[in-house]
Structures are given as structure tokens and as C-alpha cells.
């Protein structure tokens, strides 16, 4: 497993000097700035199709069978996010990721075989899903008025603060049937300058989740809070997520133009002792 933010040409040829046996599945994990996409151009492939040999380009990352972005947070089905090649030929196939993370997985069964590719990073005018390797920063999530889920995912336990947000209704109404068979109006209101907590439990359609998990799939996320409303510099405490993966996830129905700014930093020992969420070891 190799993680890099470098661009340019990459070459691999299976050699007796390799630390892994021929036929072992390996990965080149690519990550760049949040505002960039990753362009991968396969130039030449010499990988026998026999014995499971192949090279695959993945739109996102895969770790232990789980994907970033999660299947429900990506606009493409999973089978369209993985493109594979094998054989011996000039390829000149170009792939463009949907976010700042991509993966090249390869399994080369014979010594002397390999591949070459070129990596380039291009501007992304509308970032949605962002993978963070290990830096403190203020990140902006936006659905750009569309029905989609966007997330910031870190590969470390993190402490998270809300900087500002405008997510969903500041007032949402729904009807419920009372004992007298009449419909009663229930209103959830967000006071000016404040936010509503536990919005997912209150059946809000749009909200910002904060939580963590042991793997990349947000379907397995332990949620500390889900917030909605509109506020600048909201009066909220910092949330610490003691999990290998920390995620801030913006869930959007498409009925609102949602956005949120969050400050994320690696959690320190004193933060972890007071964590809001702790994943099982």
C-alpha cells in the first residue's frame, strides 16, 4: 500500500526484489487538495489475465471492502466506479475521479510484468466529498442545490467545531394524528442564530451528521449529533470522535441549497478522554 500526492509518471514491474509475492493485491492510493480531482491515464499494461492478474482504477478509496465515498453518497453505482484492465497492450485510457481521492489497485501474477500510468491533478469547481489525511483546516460542504450527500472524512480521530451553516428549514412543519383523530400541527423551529440538534431523529429531510466509524462506509457510522438550521458562529461545543475514521456528512434532499463550514483538527489525548463518540476497538 502506497499513499501519495505526487503527480507525473508511475511505473511498476514485478521483481524478485519486491517485498510482496507475485500475485499479491497492492494499491497506489492517491490523494490531493480538497478542490482538485485526480486524472489517471493508463499508458501501458502488461499484466497476464490468468491467475487473477489485473489493474483496476477506483473512483475513490477502498479499504477492507469499504469505499470512500460510500455507495449511497456517490452519484455512480459501485460497479461503474471500478474499471479494470489486463493483457499486454498500449491502453491510453483516461479516468477522472469525482473527488480528491482515487485508487489504482493491481495484482501482477508474473515476474517481469507491470504497467505504466500518468497522474495529474485538475481543478474541481464544486467539491462535494473530501478525504483528509492529516491536517487541521476549515472545510466547506455544499450540495450546490442538488439532491446528494457530501462529506468530509478524516483518516484519524478528530475534534470538530461548527463554524457556520445553513442547512434545511429553519422551520419545518408536519402533521400528526392525535387521540381525537384530528391532525395536529407540530413545528420544529430554529431560533435566530441557533441550530437544531438531533434533526435526523426529528424527521428533518436535510441535516449535518457528525460521527465516526472503524471503516470508510458511512452506513456504519456512529452518529454523535445531526444538526440543521441557519447560524453564523453557532454556540456549540467541540465534538471529539474517537474512531479511526471521522466523518462530517451533509445529507440533502435537493429542496434546499445547503452549506456548512466545519473546523477539523486531529484529536489530542486530552480530547480523546472526553470523546463524544468512541468506536469499539
Automatic annotation (TrEMBL):
SUPFAM superfamilies (UniProt xref): Spermadhesin, CUB domain
InterPro entries referenced in this protein's UniProt entry, alphabetically: CRF-bd, CRF-BP_C, CRF-BP_N, Sperma_CUB_dom_sf
Domain Corticotropin-releasing factor binding protein C-terminal: 137-272
Pfam family, any one: CRF-BP_N
UniProt keyword annotations, A-Z: Disulfide bond, Glycoprotein, Secreted, Signal
Corticotropin-releasing factor binding protein N-terminal domain span: 5-120
Family statement drawn from the similarity comment of this UniProt entry: Belongs to the CRF-binding protein family.
Function of the molecule: Binds CRF and inactivates it. May prevent inappropriate pituitary-adrenal stimulation in pregnancy.
Protein's recorded name: Corticotropin-releasing factor-binding protein
Organism of origin: Daphnia pulex (Water flea)
Amino acid at each position: 500500500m502506497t499513499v501519495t500526492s505526487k503527480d507525473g509518471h508511475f511505473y511498476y514491474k514485478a521483481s524478485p526484489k519486491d517485498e510482496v509475492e507475485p500475485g499479491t493485491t497492492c494499491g497506489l492510493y492517491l490523494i490531493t487538495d480538497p478542490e482538485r480531482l485526480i486524472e489517471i491515464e493508463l499508458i501501458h499494461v502488461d499484466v497476464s489475465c490468468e491467475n487473477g492478474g489485473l489493474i483496476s482504477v477506483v473512483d475513490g478509496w477502498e479499504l477492507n471492502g469499504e469505499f470512500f465515498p460510500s455507495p449511497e453518497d456517490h452519484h455512480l453505482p459501485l460497479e461503474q466506479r471500478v474499471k479494470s484492465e489486463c493483457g499486454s497492450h498500449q491502453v491510453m485510457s483516461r479516468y477522472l475521479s469525482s473527488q480528491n481521492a482515487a485508487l489504482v489497485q493491481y495484482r501482477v501474477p508474473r515476474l517481469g510484468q507491470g504497467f505504466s500510468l500518468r497522474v495529474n491533478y485538475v481543478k474541481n469547481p464544486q467539491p462535494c466529498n473530501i478525504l483528509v489525511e492529516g491536517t487541521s483546516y476549515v472545510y466547506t460542504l455544499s450540495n450546490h442545490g442538488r439532491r446528494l450527500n457530501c462529506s468530509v472524512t478524516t483518516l484519524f480521530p478528530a475534534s470538530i467545531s461548527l463554524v457556520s451553516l445553513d442547512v434545511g428549514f429553519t422551520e419545518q412543519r408536519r402533521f400528526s394524528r392525535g387521540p381525537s383523530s384530528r391532525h395536529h400541527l407540530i413545528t420544529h423551529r430554529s431560533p435566530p442564530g441557533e441550530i437544531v440538534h438531533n434533526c435526523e431523529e426529528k424527521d428533518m429531510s436535510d441535516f449535518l451528521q457528525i460521527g465516526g466509524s472503524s471503516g470508510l462506509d458511512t452506513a456504519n457510522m456512529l452518529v454523535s449529533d445531526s444538526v440543521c438550521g441557519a447560524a453564523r458562529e453557532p454556540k456549540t461545543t467541540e465534538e471529539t470522535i474517537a474512531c479511526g475514521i471521522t466523518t462530517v456528512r451533509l445529507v440533502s434532499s435537493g429542496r434546499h441549497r445547503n452549506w456548512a463550514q466545519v473546523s477539523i483538527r486531529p484529536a489530542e489525548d486530552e480530547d480523546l478522554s472526553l470523546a463524544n463518540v468512541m468506536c469499539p476497538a
